[in-house]
């Protein structure tokens, strides 16, 4: 009986290591390698910027430091959320029909307030979460809205999730953003940020060597605390506050609290 109990504990520990600690270690090593060996230094520009996020929290994870730095210098920044974020907590009986959407909207406004974004610089397109890739009407709605916003606001830079970010909404958001910029005919610097790219996979499975020629690291040490406060405003995404497990896996947040952010310029 004692032996079987010990074997059970050892097996449980091995499963825990394989499921959580090894992916976390892989994630850290790859991110540090990309950050310190493959990225070139990036200076903050004075161009007005538009941050396009598929979901509420992507902007703070991927661009929170950039946003805070630009706002400290008085540079205009607009944030556009493509989907309503309603698919979050779909497993939970209290939120299975999208009731989480208004909570995520409130968190987004609060988080961006921490980073220095005024409410009138935040846009919610409210396209159905999880439908961008599979619903042509949803995709066209996002394209039309983005094209209009870019044409009106005319940002000098646009930041959007990576085209290989391993999330359907993230990857389609990149495609739609690229199409929207082309439709305006404006000359805009396009940058990609990533959320899921290095998690539980290998860098060169999604990113080709030629892509790394456009990899940059932006120092954000001066606003790192501010970025962390913004990320932690999204309690619905990283705390077990609704009677279930957290949505973001253990170790996932570490790389977003480093003194640099990584961007790819196609």
Keywords:
8 strands; three-stranded mixed β-sheet; alpha/beta; 46% helix; 266 residues; five-stranded parallel β-sheet
Structural commentary:
- The protein is globular, with a radius of gyration of 19 Å.
- By secondary structure, the chain is an alpha/beta fold.
- It has nine helices and eight strands.
The percent range for strand residues is 15-25%
Q: Name the overall outline.
A: globular
Helix share, percent: 40-55%
Number of helices: 9
- Walk across the major sheet and give the strand order: 4-3-2-5-6
Let me know the largest β-sheet. Answer: 5 strands, parallel
Based on helices, strands and strand pairing, what is the structural class?
alpha/beta
Number of strands: 8
What pattern of helices and strands is seen along the backbone?
Answer: HEEHEHEHEHEHHEHHE
Query: From the alpha-carbon coordinates, what is the Rg to the nearest angstrom?
Result: 19 Å
Mean pLDDT: 88
Please mark out the parts with pLDDT under 50 across 5 or more consecutive residues, or reply none.
none
- Termini separation comes to 60 Å
How would the blueprint of this fold be written?
Elements lengths: L1 H37 L1 E2 L7 E5 L4 H15 L4 E7 L17 H15 L6 E6 L8 H18 L3 E5 L6 H17 L4 E5 L9 H4 L2 H4 L2 E5 L4 H9 L2 H4 L21 E5 L2
Brief write-up:
By secondary structure, the chain is of the alpha/beta class. It contains 9 helices and 8 strands.
């Amino acid at each position: 009986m004692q032996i079987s109990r010990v074997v059970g504990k050892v097996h449980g520990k091995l499963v825990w290591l394989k499921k959580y600690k090894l992916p976390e270690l892989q994630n850290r090593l790859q991110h540090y390698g990309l950050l310190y060996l493959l990225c070139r230094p990036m200076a903050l520009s004075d161009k007005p910027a538009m941050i396009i996020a598929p979901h509420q929290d992507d902007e703070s994870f991927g661009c929170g430091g950039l946003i805070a730095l630009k706002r400290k210098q008085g540079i205009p920044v607009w944030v556009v959320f493509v989907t309503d974020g309603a698919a979050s907590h779909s497993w939970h009986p209290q939120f299975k029909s999208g009731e989480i959407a208004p909570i995520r909207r409130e968190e987004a406004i609060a988080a961006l307030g921490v980073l220095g974004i005024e409410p009138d610089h935040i846009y919610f397109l409210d396209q159905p979460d999880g439908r961008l890739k599979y619903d042509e009407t949803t995709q066209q709605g996002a394209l039309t809205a983005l094209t209009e916003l870019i044409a009106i606001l005319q940002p000098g830079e646009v930041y959007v999730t990576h085209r290989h970010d391993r999330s359907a909404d993230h990857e389609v958001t990149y495609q739609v953003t690229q199409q929207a910029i082309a439709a305006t005919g404006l000359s805009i610097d396009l940058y990609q940020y990533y959320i899921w790219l290095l998690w539980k996979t290998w860098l060169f499975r999604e990113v080709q060597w030629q892509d790394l020629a456009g990899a940059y690291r932006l120092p954000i040490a001066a606003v790192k605390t501010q970025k962390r406060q913004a990320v932690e405003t999204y309690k619905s995404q990283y705390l077990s506050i609704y009677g279930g497990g957290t949505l973001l896996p253990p170790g996932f947040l570490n790389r977003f609290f480093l003194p640099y952010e990584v961007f790819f310029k196609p």
